[in-house]
Design brief:
This protein has helices at about 10-25, 45-55, 70-75, 80-90, 110, 125-135, 155-160; strands at about 1-5, 30, 35-40, 65, 95-100, 115-120, 140, 140, 165-170, 180-185, 190-195. It is an alpha/beta fold. The chain has a single domain (about 1-195), classed as DHBP synthase, CATH 3.90.870.10. A hairpin with a 4-residue loop joins β2 (about 30) and β3.
């Protein structure tokens, strides 16, 4: 497992090493604005499978994505409604994950066969800089074994996974008190699927 301590001097190297690992099908642990996340390139089936295995994640649990832009998000989902677009415009970048109708060609590891995909542009953090520089979507599953608390520091990530992941970006302790909020638009209304750090306030019927 590679490890890099994040400082102003190492940020550029950390970004290029992380992108290199992602492009080669590896798993990267990195700090987000909530907790640490585990990233693989969204369209690499082998990497996605491996990520499920190291997390012991049930196959029926979909894998959320970080996207670099709303434009990218729109290429991954089908016919987003005006309200879904409003949520993106108002809350991204930030810790609001939106569940949207997925394009057919997205991996079932991302949709868990539901035909839906969860996405967000991360808030101000290394995760945002990483996904912007990579230019492609990256998984955003929390860095933990399924059912265990999410990691808010690099030592916890290493305790969970040791050398079963390829790179740990050590950004120190994250602010994680609550995870990202997960919402879905159902019949023209915003339904909260997981309470989190953001309290969305768009009401639209």
């Amino acid at each position: 497992m590679q490890y890099i301590k994040l400082t102003a001097d190492t940020e550029k190297e950390a970004l290029s090493r992380a992108i290199d690992v992602l492009l080669k099908g590896g798993i990267v642990a990195f700090p987000t604005e909530t907790f640490y996340g585990l990233g693989v390139k969204y369209d690499n089936e082998d990497a996605l499978r491996r990520l499920y295995e190291v997390k012991h994640r049930p196959k029926e649990k979909a894998m959320p994505l970080l996207v670099p832009s709303i434009k990218t998000a729109l290429t991954l989902c089908k016919n987003p409604s005006l309200l879904e677009r409003m949520l993106m415009e108002r809350y991204w970048p930030g810790p609001l994950t939106i569940v949207l109708k997925a394009q057919e060609d997205l991996s079932t590891y991302l949709t868990a066969g539901t035909g839906r995909v969860a996405m967000r542009i991360p808030g101000k953090s290394f995760a945002l800089r990483l996904v912007k520089q990579a230019g492609f979507p990256i998984t955003a599953t929390s860095a933990n074994i399924s059912g265990k608390p999410p990691a808010d520091n690099p030592q916890k990530v290493i305790d969970y996974f040791d050398d079963r992941i390829d790179l740990v970006i050590d950004g120190g302790k994250t602010y994680g008190i609550e995870p990202s909020t997960i919402v879905e638009v159902v019949e023209g209304r915003v339904k909260i699927l997981r309470k989190g750090i953001v309290k969305p306030s768009i009401h639209h019927s």
